[in-house]
Amino acid sequence: MxxxxxxxxxxxxTITTDRINYEDRIYVxxxxxxxxxxxxxxxxxxxxxxxxxxxxxxxxGAMGKRLEHLLANSGLPVSLIRIRxxxxxxxxxxxxxxxxxxxxxxxxxxxxxxxxxxETAVQRKLKAAEWLLLxxxxxxxxxxxxxxxxxxxxxxxxxxxxxxxxxxALRVGLEAxxxxxxxxxxxxxxxxxxxxxxxxxxxxxxxxxxxxxxxxVVLSLGSQGAMGASSNGAYHALAPDIQxxxxxxxxxxxxxxxxxxxxxKQTFPEALRWGVAAGTAAAATPGTSFAxxxxxxxxxxxxxxxxx
Length: 308
Fold this sequence. Notes:
By secondary structure, this protein is an alpha/beta fold. It has one domain (about 1-10, about 35-60, about 110-305): UDP-N-acetylmuramoyl-L-alanine:D-glutamate ligase (3-Layer(aba) Sandwich). It has helices at about 40-50, 60-70, 110-125, 145-155, 165-175, 185-190, 200-210, 250-265, 270-285, 295-300; strands at about 1-5, 10-15, 30-35, 55-60, 80, 90-95, 100-105, 130-135, 160-165, 180, 215-220, 225-230, 235-240, 305. A ten-stranded mixed beta sheet has the order 5-4-1-8-9-10-11-12-13-14, with helices on both faces. A four-stranded mixed beta sheet has the order 3-2-6-7. The radius of gyration is 18 Å and the shape is globular. The two termini are about 30 Å apart.
């Protein structure tokens, strides 16, 4: 079983318009509200691929009630941890020319008692897990080593871990040596304190991230696909050209599908190829919806895998 965790879930509200115009009124073409956050995106993707998954998250306040209502009809196995404050709401505005504006709330402040409650809940669920996905930002008030502590605990229980976060939580989490880490380009740039513009710069960053502690690294590069490194080599999975609808959630589809493929005993380079296929297919889909297994398989045939 693959266990996904986020401590900062959200209601994702996605608005689509013909063209974003900063000087005139914009008319809404479509509006979609979905339960969101990396945990749920990852869990939905794994579930859609036929993988066994349990999504673990927090809920609280009016937005939490809305989240629970939306989840009730999702068919997704979910376990909820109640907190005192309301969870956040995120707004994404996309136009048909490919421009996207994303506005994210920071999330509720988590008390030390609530942090311990979440940690205990994860430890209990790990008994039945093969993989633990630690997804998304830490909300205000949480200890920066929260993910690192869970990585250490999971290793002692022989559970593989994936870290998909940014900033200090990423830096501290890497020191705990997760099985796989998946920063995107901006997250890697902030961590390494330098721009990653060229392919060579991305390759150097990939190797440096690998040396920082993770067994496997996947560096997502948007429309350029993703680079991956493990002890057996480094690769670049090149994404095919598509008509992009909404890129939000594409990185979540990428990491979730990589983990699903690894849990299905695929090699690391093949898992990277599957991940880029899923991320590319997700970017071609409106809102934070994901492609089916058959659609992902067709996209996979178009992904070019190069050894670095």
